[in-house]
Amino acid sequence: MSAVALLPYADFLGIQVQGEHHGAPLLVMPFSEGLLNLQGGLHGGAISGLLEIAAIAAIDATLEDREQARAIFKPITVTVDFMRPGLPANVYACGEVIRVGGRIANVAVSAWQDDPDRLIAAARMNLAIGNPGDA
Question: In the chain, is it the N or the C terminus that has fewer CB atoms within a 10 Å radius of its CB?
Fold first, then answer.
């Protein structure tokens, strides 16, 4: 797997690549107080941001053509299922690329905390693949 570049929003959330999980980049979003919602759980927007960044990292890691790897990705459809509350702890996420075409990629993404078999959220995403000049 080649190195992947993360979005600037990943820096804001503290997200880093921690290795691989099933051959795709494994991302971690370290816990911080700023990620909590009013009820004391992890904010759904932060979890969704992690899922989107993991999807893009998974696509980026599969692209053979390094010119294409500098592509920009724009969400077309995003469906997030929240399965249990996120606790005040690190969150891990990994994407599985279902298909990459010339202009659209389909990815399934999972997020968990202490056990990859106990998901806190999952998403299906279709992302448009564009050239940096299209932004």
Answer: C
d(CA 101, CA 78): 17
In three-state secondary structure terms, 92 is strand
The pTM of the full predicted model, rounded to 2 decimals, is: 0.89
The angle at the Cα of 128, spanning 42 to 21, to the nearest 5 degrees, equals 50
Name which of 10, 11, 28 is nearest 19 in CA terms.
28
In terms of residue numbers, what domain contains 51?
8-134
Determine which helix (DSSP H) or strand (DSSP E) holds 57, and give its type and residue range. helix 44-62
- Structural domains of the chain, count: 1
Q: What's the CATH number where 121 sits?
A: 3.10.129.10
Buried-exposed string 52-67: b where 16+ CB fall within 10 A, e elsewhere: bbbbbbbbbbbbeeee
Distance separating alpha carbons of residues 80 and 102, to the nearest angstrom: 25
Instruction: Indicate the helix (H) or strand (E) that contains 60.
Output: helix 44-62
pLDDT, tens digit, 9 for 90 and up, residues 95-117: 999 999 889 999 999 999 999 99
Between CA 120 and CA 103 the distance in angstroms is 30
